UniProtKB/TrEMBL annotation:
InterPro entries: FAD-SLDH_ssu
Protein name: Membrane bound FAD containing D-sorbitol dehydrogenase
Highest taxon listed in the record's lineage: Bacteria
Source organism: Chryseobacterium soldanellicola
Length: 147
């Protein structure tokens, strides 16, 4: 039964999920895994939508990833086969939002998802109230400070 297979994180669907997440977010698989949320996000999606819908998205992603030999080909294929299809685009948008903000359809996946959202890396900031920058950090100029 396919549902038992997809819930096994060692299956190739998980690898496809991580690879397409890398392409959609611009962060490497290692960076995504370092959030500690990869398995949780994969399983969360399965709990939120029908497995068949997710599998369709992953099969389309798998085909794109296997048939792309350059970054340009990959970007063009994602635009043509995922972004151009409203259902696939919704799934891609939800996955991007989940990685960046830690939310799925407006609700945080868990407490860690807020802390580990990719948005904080992009902003060179920390999540207020969750990860403090450290003692005496106020005396250090921000990374992109013009002053």
């Amino acid at each position: 039964m396919i549902i038992n297979k997809i819930l096994n994180v060692d299956d190739y669907y998980y690898d496809v999920f991580m690879s397409i997440s890398e392409s959609l977010t611009g962060f490497s698989v290692n960076e995504l895994q370092s959030t500690g949320l990869a398995d949780i996000y994969y399983k969360h999606i399965l709990g939120q939508i029908e497995a068949a819908t997710f599998i369709e998205f992953l099969n389309t992603s798998k085909t794109i990833l296997e048939n792309s030999y350059s970054q340009d080909q990959l970007n063009n294929a994602i635009n043509a086969e995922i972004i151009a299809d409203p259902g696939m685009q919704d799934m891609a948008n939800n996955i991007i939002t989940m990685w960046y903000l830690g939310t799925w359809e407006g609700a945080y996946v868990n407490d860690l998802s807020y802390k580990e959202g990719l948005v904080w890396n992009i902003m060179h900031a920390h999540p207020p109230g969750a990860k403090q920058p450290g003692f005496k950090s106020w005396g250090v100029k921000p990374v992109n400070s013009n002053s």
